[in-house]
Amino acid sequence: MARIAEDLLLLLLDNASAQPCLDKARRERVLTAAVLLDLAHACLIRPAVDGDPAPAGKLVALTPRGRVDPVAEPAFRLLQRRALSPRSAVDKLRRRTENTLLVHLEATGQIARTPVAHRKTAWPVTNRDRAAHARSQVLSALFDRQPPAPATAAVITLLHAVDGLGALLSLNDRGWRWVHGRAGEIALGSWVDESPTGLAEVNLAVTASAIRAALTA
Asked: In total, how many domains does the chain have?
């Protein structure tokens, strides 16, 4: 399951209009980055280090031990062909990622497709339990300082990187100061030290750091 990317898109769709509440440019980049982080959490990609055939910092594909999630498979196959910088990987994948996610979420019954005016499509969430849980986890991590689960940490990191938390939250100045501070801690990897972690979580945090830099540069 592309947990990070799916949760992120469900959060962006969970509103009255049933359309993603983030502008297209940022949405394409952040959803693509989320797919890459799903691969990192599955230990299927990582940034190259000294001694690797690829230059340090480029994303390299690792050997899969099973079937790759269909949502993340195009990104994995791209990196199997050659190592890419996080920015290049996002640029090459961003135009197709959102549609792939929408089709998958529709096929699995998590959203519906509804035509609306001006040739637009609404995507109402058919069962809000998952979106509501993802939102509650984000709020707990930001406001209650609860150690976030890896997917929650990744969602916060990516939205913070593109200044996109406003798509989920409406706060006064004091609230935003708190949120930006806490989100910044999580984006810098504090969540790895807040709860027991293993190789998958460490690889996710390291890859998130590399991708976050590409989103903010």
From this structure: 1
